[in-house]
Amino acid sequence: MCIIVREIKLEYIDGVAEVIKTAGIGSGGDMRSWIENLKEGEHIFVAEKDGKIISLVSAILKQQPYGFIPTVATHSDYRRIGAATKTLKAVMEKAREAGFSIVGLFTGKDNIAGQGLYKKLGFIPAHPQWMVYLINPLSIPLVDELKAKRPFIEPKLEESLVKVEGFDCACLKWYDIISKEQIAFCFSPIHRWYQGNSTVALNLMKLDINSPSLNLDLSIQAHASNFNLCQDSEVSVGITVENRSESEFEYKLKMELPSCLITEDKLDEIKQKIAPRGKSSHDINVSVPKDAQVGVAPVCFKVNDMMPISATLGIRNMIEFNLTPKNLTLAPDEIGQILISLTGNHPETSNVEYELAYPPDFCLESLRWKISDFKQENRLLLQQSVTLPSETKHGDYDLTGKVTYRNRDFNSTIKLRVTDFPRILLLAKDEETEPLIEAILSEPSNGLTWLTLQEVMNLNWVDSLKQYHSLILDELQRPRPLSLDQMWEIYHYVESGGGFLMFGGWETFQGHDAEQCGLYKGTPIEKIVPIEFSSEWDAYETEGFSVDEKRTIEPFKLKCVDEDHPITQGIDWESVPPINGYNKCASVKEKGKILIVDEKTDHPILVIGECGHGKVAVFLTCYSRGWAGNLKEWSGFNQLWKNLIQWLARK
């Protein structure tokens, strides 16, 4: 049977979930929610063959003239039969019918096959430095008009970025090598949350035309008194039209303001003429309400039927307030440290009132203080002690902080678990760490304190290491943020009986490249663990990840070599999903014990051992981000980490 393409229906959920899984871009578990909650302008097209869903493409067609394709996925068993091609064509036809001029997408630099497909469908590179940003010019009136007169005009991406109003912009030209005529677009791609809805603005900040065939020689450029705003502020925004020709230029100007911005200026259509070699500017004053949602807000200016020029404004909170760590564990009558972070974004000075409210069960008065004359670019990082009453019951609580600034309240909450044993300290980046945290905390007796880079750098956590029964070192940041002194403190902590677990990834062990990642070879961390680190880059990955052919591997499954060990027992190892990479160690130390390997090569993945009085383990791949694929959806995910935590803490 032939391949049939249609828009998605609820009955396709299982088939779409399978496509997502086999394509390695997710678990497919939230497909019903995704489909049921599609908003206006959001579309999903699927390809079907012999009654089976084999490919899907999603599209965001909300804000003309720019559309965006966030997802292209094909079932791993049905690639290279034209499914993705037909589905993409259907999406682009939908965009064309809806009046969209340009559709864009991102893809990986290593996705050579994907880039070849997109090129055949008319996509062209649109940014020299982004991962790979491609656009498909469906119908750009001005370009189409010039093509009719100059059929050899071709798009050309400049190799370097250009500055427009202080922004680094890509420069994409439609250029005729014979006549030297050109139409140049200077823009930056933006894909962010805008007023609660995912959208894309091709932030076209400057349009430059030099075309005798069109009788045009002009430049149109957006400007603003400030592109980075906050709630309860004002800005002047507009465009400048420069006529470089010897003829008068007549135009009509339309302005469009997003609903989150307010103006008292008229937005009526403007008709104007510019004298030869003349300029004209159009400005409006806009204000951002106190309750405006954080995100981006494009203000659009359209001259005649040309592509709209946009000044995309960034909207921030008037003050950034954060309490960390987001997860904290303490025992009754124990002292913990929290970090208060305040950053002012509003240009006017104002007082800040702070309050930390304890749970009612603690019978403690709230902590309060006040700062006068806080304003833009003021920043405060303050470490504060928190002491639990000796009679505090075990359980989960919220520590809620509140900041009042310019008559608005901003809240931040710390999740506190009160327990005696075991308590774990996790050092990990703020990126897809939640699956591990949820797995650990699914055991009611486990307590967890999670420190991200900011807390590692600013909290005096080393002095409180003895409060914890185990320490987990995950990916943190590039370059390695731990100092030599901190690593020696960790070594002495483990030698004295603390448990230690180290996860794999680009930024752990010896890492992905010598300049930025990992580099734990020869440090006290290597003395702790039951393996010898490689002296070279140790990241081995599947084709979709790897940048080095010598370190490219095939997807593999985990194989347990000792199912009777307390860490691995009671787990279904047959159902473990494929993994896409690992850190290759040089060797396993004499007293190291291998529990899990790569089923294809027998390379160690989970190795345990001891350092002094402490139990130690390394898991030489990721648990959630990066190489992990769908590991977090595996039925044995939570049990593996609960078993490992209990073993490390000698429970």
Structure description:
The protein is mainly beta and 651 residues long. The chain has four domains: 1-136, Gcn5-related N-acetyltransferase (GNAT) (Aminopeptidase); 140-316, Immunoglobulins (Immunoglobulin-like); 317-420, Immunoglobulins (Immunoglobulin-like, Sandwich); 422-651, 3-Layer(aba) Sandwich (Rossmann fold). It is 14% helix and 42% strand. The chain contains ten helices and 41 strands. Strands 8, 9, 10, 11, 12, 13, 15, 17 and 19 form a nine-stranded antiparallel β-sheet that branches. The longest helix is centred in the first third of the chain and has 15 residues, at 83-97.
Q: What would you call the quaternary organization?
A: single chain
Annotation field: number of helices:
10
Indicate the CATH architecture of the largest domain.
3-Layer(aba) Sandwich
Beginning-to-end CA distance, first to last residue: 59 Å
Indicate the proportion of strand residues.
Answer: 35-45%
Q: Could you tell me the mean pLDDT?
A: 90
CATH homologous superfamily assignment of the largest domain: Class I glutamine amidotransferase (GATase) domain
Rg is: 29 Å
What's the β-strand tally?
Answer: 41
Share of helical residues:
10-25%
The first-level CATH class of the largest domain is given as: Alpha Beta
List segments where confidence is low: pLDDT < 50 over at least 5 consecutive residues. Answer: 192-198
Largest sheet: 9 strands, antiparallel
